[in-house]
Design goal:
mainly alpha; 4 helices; single chain; 65 residues
Length: 65
């Protein structure tokens, strides 16, 4: 599975519990946030001024392990 910018944050977090740490490392405390159920990764990144490409790279690297 490859995570893309158009996927909802909540759907990505359901794939692997360890991804929560990656979101937090990037300044996104998504767990428990109401926005996580509605926002895509690109919306969350833009809203929190996070580098989207680096976030996606880290998420996808973690899924390959």
């Amino acid at each position: 599975m490859i995570v893309t910018e158009n996927m909802k944050v909540c759907d990505v977090l359901e794939v692997d519990d360890n991804l929560e740490g990656i979101f937090m490392k990037h300044g996104l405390n998504c767990v428990g946030c109401p926005g996580a159920n509605q926002e895509t990764i690109i919306e969350a990144a833009e809203g929190h001024e996070i580098d989207l490409e680096t976030l996606l790279e880290d998420i996808n690297k973690a899924l390959l392990k």
